[in-house]
Amino acid sequence: MCHLVRDGVRTRVVFREGERGGISGGYSYVGCVSTGPGKLLNLNEPGVVRHLVDEATDRGLLPGAAELDGWDLFDAVLSRAAAATPAAPPGCPPGP
Questions:
Q1: From what superkingdom does this record's organism come (predicted)?
Q2: Dihedral over Cα of 25, 54, 70, 36: its sign
Q3: Start-end of H helices in the chain
Q4: Which residues, listed in sequence order, are joined to residue 13 by a DSSP beta bridge?
Q5: Does the N-terminal peptide bond of residue 46 adopt cis geometry, omega within 30 degrees of 0?
Q6: Where are the strands (E) in 1-96, listed by range?
Q7: Dist CA 88 CA 4 (whole Å)
């Protein structure tokens, strides 16, 4: 889960474990969400949070929604993060 406050409006981006993806539960880095091998976002990285905000804003979801399903944003945020990482192949998890 990621808590955002923008223009005084609180929004939670929630990643629930299930069919759509998994969350770190001691098996990976704390704060990671994944949909499979090589498809991982670390919610503790500021760049990943920035991409979440940008994607939700571009879709007209921020500010306004009290809770967003993070899996709806996952693939687009993964693509943004990979594009922001020099020499990263498509689908590569974000780097430092």
A1: Bacteria
A2: negative
A3: 46-58, 70-84
A4: 2, 68
A5: no
A6: 2-6, 9-14, 22-23, 32-36, 39-42, 67-69
A7: 27
Alpha-carbon distance of 58 to 44, in angstroms, equals 22
Is the Cα torsion angle 80, 86, 90, 91 positive or negative in sign? negative
Q: In this structure, what token pair is assigned to residue 52?
A: 């979440």
CA distance 69 to 67: 7
Q: For residue 73, which amino acid is it?
A: L
d(CA 70, CA 2): 9
